[in-house]
Design a protein that fits this description.
167 residues; alpha+beta; 4-stranded mixed beta sheet
């Protein structure tokens, strides 16, 4: 009986030690993009934006590989030129056409200076034109990117493209 009690106490002590060594990961929405090794989680963005849309009576959006490439190219173009601008390379419609993306409806949010997805989302939500884009009726797909440029004024450049390919 004494051995069983000692064994249980020992296991509880070891379990307590293991609990101390486990680290909890930071939620993806709070991960700073202001660092060269940071990777944006597009699924976390889609989930956050979908919940926001659903709370406003709209449908969810899913990550689209083509829109991801377009968003990445736009964020990198802004970062490389240290310029926050929808048309740094070309207007959205022209970029969609040049890539062959079959959008029937598309809107874009860009921003800079926000270090986390949560900050970028909040900035867009609190800006009437950006909010309207996130709540655009009919969009079903998303591409999002954040590009880090350490030697620029803003450090992080964001692009969100929401689109539909339905007729």
């Amino acid at each position: 009986m004494m051995r069983a009690i000692v064994a249980i106490v020992g296991l509880l002590a070891l379990g307590g030690c293991m609990a101390d060594t486990q680290t909890s990961e930071q939620p993806a929405m709070y991960l700073s993009m202001a660092n060269g090794g940071a990777t944006l989680d597009p699924q976390a963005a889609a989930s956050m934006i979908s919940l926001y849309r659903q709370n406003n009576g709209l449908g969810a959006v899913v990550v689209d590989p083509g829109l991801m490439k377009l968003a990445e190219a736009q964020s990198q173009a802004m970062a490389s030129r240290n310029k926050l601008d929808h048309e740094v390379k070309a207007p959205l419609e022209k970029r969609l056409g040049a890539s062959g993306y079959p959008a029937t409806l598309a809107v874009e949010n860009v921003s800079a200076g926000y270090h986390t997805l949560a900050e970028a989302f909040s900035g867009w939500r609190d800006s009437p034109p950006h909010r309207a884009n996130m709540l655009k009726n009919g969009v079903t797909k998303l591409g999002i990117a954040a590009s880090y440029a350490p030697n620029t004024k803003y450090k992080v450049f964001w692009t969100l493209i929401l689109a539909s390919t339905k007729a």
